[in-house]
Amino acid sequence: MRKILLTIFSVTFVFIGTINACPLEEEDQNKMLSELCTMDDGDWSSNRLNEMIILFKFGKLPPEKSNKGNRMLAALTCSFRNYKN
User: Fold this and answer.
1) Torsion angles phi and psi, residue 41, rounded to 5
2) What tens digit of pLDDT does each residue of 46-64 get?
3) CA-CA-CA-CA torsion sign (73, 79, 80, 85)
4) Residue 10 falls inside a structural domain
5) Residue 83: is it exposed, middle or buried by C-beta count within 10 angstroms (0-12/13-18/19+)?
6) Residues 53/74, Cβ–Cβ less than 8 Å
7) Which of 21, 27, 36, 54 lies 20 to 30 Å from 7 when distance is taken between CA atoms?
8) Which domain holds residue 69?
């Protein structure tokens, strides 16, 4: 009985696939990115926050992640956003 329930439970997850969240409107995306960028004090020392900014803007992290690379990409993303506004 346990094996049958486990099989049914695991098969359900296989056929469900990925769950996509509702896409955000451009205005909401800009507001959220703005809030993430203002959380930092300009030092860009928080790697977690840098990764959140990169993930929010580009949807994935670069293949070769490093703290220095994340810091530069997040800083450039936020600087460009500030320049554009």
Assistant:
1) -95, 15
2) 888 888 888 888 888 888 7
3) positive
4) no
5) exposed
6) yes
7) 21
8) 26-84
